[in-house]
Specification:
The complex is a heterodimer of chains A (about 450) and B (about 500). Chain A is about 30% helix and about 25% strand. With about 450 residues, chain A is an alpha+beta fold. In chain B, about 35% of the residues lie in helices and about 20% in strands. Chain B is built from 17 helices and 20 strands. In chain B, α13 packs antiparallel against α14. Chain B starts with 5 loop residues before the first helix and ends in a 7-residue tail after the last helix. In chain B, about 55% of the residues are buried. Classes of the chains: A alpha+beta (about 450), B alpha+beta (about 500). At the A-B interface, β9, α7, β11, α8 and α9 of A face β9, α7, α8 and α16 of B.
């Protein structure tokens, strides 16, 4: 990196907020080391950093907590990491309006703690809440079990302030819960992986903290029976916050200690509502082969969301599959067969009610890419067969070289490219990491 | 806009008829009049043609023809919009989607339906109702408005407080892009690969293309519903009660407010059981599990009593509940009893600012020598001040527009928005700078250019225009064309 832009960055944000050399090791992704990492402290500094980078022709990698940094194609060479961690405050929280505005670099854990003091929460969960930031969760469209009832970032973000690749500060949406003025820009930035703008401030809808909440685990002999139970729960009068399925291998996680396919259903609300639903769930599932319905501790539940990844040590790859809810348990069973046939192991977890599964693949010979790639392709094909898609969330470069990280979005991909060309004409924002060549 | 020369018009008519059939094209000025307005009769604009396609391929062919001829085009549903969004602002072709009105598929296992854009909103709930499901977004015009029109405006309704607006229920759409290409944005699954194109399409007011198939979520009907009517002697107490309900940790399905003037109109028209002497009434609905529903209703009742309600009662049965809702949903129509014309406003504020804003709205309208009725989604802070006036009185309409602009400015000042559900359309283009900076608008314009580079797809909407001196402002009020023909009352 030329000295001039580096000096400019240092004088802008202070020398201690610009990292170079060996300090950059946390920011190495897929073997690529950025030129520098810079941590602006204000919206205006973010804008100025983008201006300097764009002026010097440096690609910009927006960076929150880094928990999803492995998702995507390898980052651009000679790039500048723009870290948001110093922008970590709640700017506004009006409990009576059930809205809050926070800076993007705030971790999910500290945001929830702050909102909790007002008796409220943001109904959006992500793995590693101590590290994951609000901005990162939104940029990657991360979600957790309770999305079943409460939706994802697209349903919760009502306003956003971003810095564009040309250094303009743009606000979309607003601070009110209902708003149709102008285009719905927040939707565009949710899940855009930092390719359209650097998200700096976010306004979200909140919910009151429920009086009571419980997660119940029910074991089954056969995965197919879990699928039948999921359908029965969905067709019932129950209003679960989450409907998750773990296959036998994922269910061996410490919190569950079983090797049986397991259904985990969450409920919240008034105590009598939660109580009635737990009883009803036990009754329904018992009739379908479920046994040992046990309530789970809440922290145990959070640990389980990464259950699949930890099933057999270090995975060879992790894939996220989106499909129609009714196909989930079939896809899990077929996916396990596809791995077994190639001598590999796997573990699956799924938010079954919304059709989102995560599968971790394990190989005794990690360097033997062929069976790994073939299994991943088979998994992706099963998502396609149900009108869905798959993302290779984590894999070594050798596997990424064989298996596309993203799906080809087809004709819609052309629209996406036109949007990228219009909104980031100099292509400085996270170039080459996303799908369709974006 | 220059009218089309007759020979060219005849030739185009033949080409359009070849695409959609001879019975699917209107070009006679008398017939076109019906399509001159939407629910906001202040604005009128005449198309050269109205066509009635029956498939995505026909829509695409019409769009390609319009592009070849460099004619603007705009999609239209039932025409119940309230911001002029479906008007052919610059002539050209109106594509009415009313013949594409089928439910193509219902998938109960995956809780979704695929519908055509001309399907009437309520008809979807009718179709899936016998199986215990419904479509949640419920604009007050749901007996007439179409799902396609709801997509354009990202329509809301009373129950969006708990269940969200249209965009929260759309999974994906097949659209004809402004260049005529047919493409799916999103699909049937909960997430699509890449940018959330379905998310930005919904609410783009017909400027990103024309939806031809829509995949929507359908929800299980709740086991139980309780509707509470709270009557107040002071509107400020009713406003305070809204925040009090939320502060108790309740998320009602709906919190609607109806003020004194509106109660008069509704009771004159329908006799729904609202006390005539009330300053304001709140209609609060809780729904969900039968377990706990009484407790939730009791908390609502308590919150309203503590906020100073004079009378609070829970609807005894479905009949009473239906009557109360009829009063709410028919309120706009009922204003006709009080005044020859009214202007429906739509703005949003943080709900904690309700007491201040309602007081200011009443002051603003009174200062212009006019009357206002308020009936609105109080739980969302989505105001609908309806300014009553007589278009025959010279100058009155100008005062209505002035008061309207002041109310929009007020919404913006308290951190709100200039539209919660009716859209910007033609009506509010010049208010956009109240809440968006030039950089915000420039960014939106680029997004528009990505979908609609020629601007031919629904021109003149959303973005501020600079009116030159010679250009006319809004024309004087006239009845809707279908009223003039004696076909319908104003909705």
């Amino acid at each position: 990196m030329p000295a001039a832009p580096l000096d400019q960055l240092r004088s802008l944000v202070g020398t201690s907020h610009v990292l170079t050399g060996v300090e950059l090791s946390p920011y190495v992704v897929d073997g690529r080391t950025p030129e520098a990492a810079v941590f602006p402290g204000t919206l205006d500094e973010v804008r100025a950093v983008v201006e300097i980078a764009a002026g010097a022709g440096l690609p910009i990698i927006p960076w929150g907590g880094g928990t999803a940094a492995s998702v995507g194609h390898p980052p651009a060479a000679a790039a500048l990491v723009l870290g948001l961690r110093r922008l970590d405050r709640v700017l506004e929280h009006e409990p009576g309006d059930l809205t809050a505005t926070a800076q993007a670099g705030m971790t999910m854990a500290s945001l929830q703690a702050a909102l909790g003091r007002g008796g409220q929460w943001l109904s959006l969960e992500a793995p590693q809440p101590e590290r994951a930031t609000l901005g990162g969760v939104i940029a990657t469209n991360a979600s957790g079990p309770r999305r079943h009832l409460y939706g994802t970032a697209r349903d919760l973000v009502i306003g956003m302030t971003v810095v564009t690749g040309e250094g303009a500060v743009v606000r979309g949406g607003g601070k009110v819960v209902k708003n149709v003025a102008g285009y719905d820009l927040p939707k565009l930035f949710v899940g855009s992986y930092g390719t359209l703008g650097v998200i700096v401030e976010i306004t979200v809808k909140l919910r009151p903290r429920p009086e009571d909440e419980r997660f119940v685990a029910v074991r089954f002999e056969r995965l197919a029976d879990v699928g039948i139970a999921v359908r029965a729960v969905m067709a019932s009068d129950l209003i679960p916050t989450s409907i998750d399925v773990l296959d036998g291998d994922a269910a061996r996680v410490r919190a569950l200690r079983t090797a049986a396919p397991t259904l985990v259903v969450g409920f919240d609300g008034l105590a009598e509502q939660v109580q009635w639903q737990c009883v009803e769930l036990e009754r329904m599932t018992a009739a379908l082969g479920g046994r040992d319905a046990v309530p789970l501790a809440h922290d145990a539940w959070l640990a389980m969301t990464a259950a699949g990844r930890d099933a057999f040590g270090t995975p060879a790859a992790v894939m996220r599959l989106v499909m129609l809810p009714a196909h989930v348990t079939d896809a899990m069973a077929a996916g396990a067969e596809a791995a077994k046939a190639r001598g590999l192991a796997c573990a699956w977890t799924a938010h079954a009610g919304v059709g989102v599964a995560t599968a971790a693949l394990f190989s005794p010979r990690q360097t033997d890419v062929e069976p790994i790639a073939a299994t991943l392709e088979a998994w992706r094909a099963s998502a396609h067969a149900s009108g869905g898609h798959a993302t290779l969330e984590w894999a070594p470069l050798a596997v990424k070289a064989r298996v596309p990280v993203w799906d080809d979005p087809g004709a819609a991909g052309r629209v996406m490219r036109r949007i990228k060309e219009q909104l980031d004409p100099k292509n400085v924002l996270n170039p080459g990491r996303f799908l369709a060549g974006i | 806009m220059v009218p089309l020369a007759e020979p060219r018009k005849r030739a185009l008519r033949r080409e359009l008829a070849a695409i959609v059939g001879a019975g699917g094209v209107l070009s006679d000025p008398d017939e076109l009049l019906v399509y001159e307005s939407d629910g906001l009769t202040l604005f009128r604009a005449l198309a050269d043609f109205v066509v009635f396609p029956t498939s995505a391929e026909q829509v695409s062919a019409v769009v390609k023809l319009a592009n070849r001829e460099e004619l603007p085009f705009v999609a239209r549903g039932a025409g119940t919009g309230l911001s002029g969004g479906c008007l052919p602002a610059e002539g050209g072709i109106v594509l009415s989607l009313m013949r594409m009105n089928r439910v193509l598929e219902v998938d109960y296992d995956n809780q979704l339906a695929i519908v055509e854009p001309g399907l009437v909103n309520l008809h979807l709930s009718w179709a899936v109702g016998p199986s215990g499901y419904y479509y949640a977004p419920d604009p007050s015009s749901q007996q007439a408005c179409t799902i396609g029109g709801n997509i354009a405006n990202n329509s809301g309704g009373p129950h969006t407080l708990k269940y969200g607006v249209t965009t929260n229920h759309v999974l994906g759409l097949e659209v004809v892009l402004p260049d005529g290409e047919i493409v799916w944005l999103g699909g049937r699954t909960r997430e699509a690969a890449g940018y959330d194109l379905a998310g930005v399409f919904v609410g783009s007011e017909g400027t990103f293309g024309i939806a031809t198939k829509i995949a929507v979520r359908i929800l299980k009907k709740p086991q139980a519903v309780k509707t509470v009517l709270a009557v107040f002697d002071e509107i400020e107490r009713a406003s305070a009660a809204v925040s009090a309900i939320i502060a108790r940790g309740l998320v009602p399905a709906a919190v609607e407010m109806i003020d004194h003037l509106t109660i008069q109109a509704v009771e004159d028209a329908f006799g729904c059981g609202y006390p005539r002497d009330a300053a304001a009434a709140l209609l609060v609905e809780v729904d969900g599990l039968a377990a706990g529903i009484e407790a939730q209703a009791a908390r609502v009742v308590e919150a309203c009593r503590d906020a100073g309600a004079r009378e609070v009662r829970v609807a005894r049965d479905e009949a009473e509940r239906a009557l109360l809702w009829k009063g709410r949903k028919s309120a706009f129509g009922a204003y006709g009893r009080l005044s020859p014309a009214y202007m429906v406003m739509d703005g949003v504020i943080p709900r904690t600012r309700l007491p201040h804003v309602l007081r200011r709205v009443n002051e603003i309208v009174a200062a212009h020598g006019l009357r206002v009725g308020n009936v609105f989604h109080a739980g969302d802070g989505n105001l609908h001040p309806n300014i009553l006036y007589d278009p025959r009185v010279p100058g009155e309409e100008t005062r209505v527009l002035e008061a309207g602009a002041e109310i929009m400015r007020l919404c913006a000042e308290v951190g709100g928005s200039i539209s919660g559900e009716h859209g910007i359309g033609l009506e509010k283009t010049d208010f956009m700078p109240f809440i968006f900076s030039p950089a915000d608008l420039a960014f939106m314009q680029r997004l528009k250019d990505a979908f609609n580079p020629t601007g031919r797809c629904n021109p003149g909407k959303i973005f501020p225009t600079r009116k030159t001196c010679g250009e006319a402002g809004p024309v004087a009020y006239r009845p809707h064309p279908i009223e003039e023909k004696g076909l319908a009352q104003r909705f």
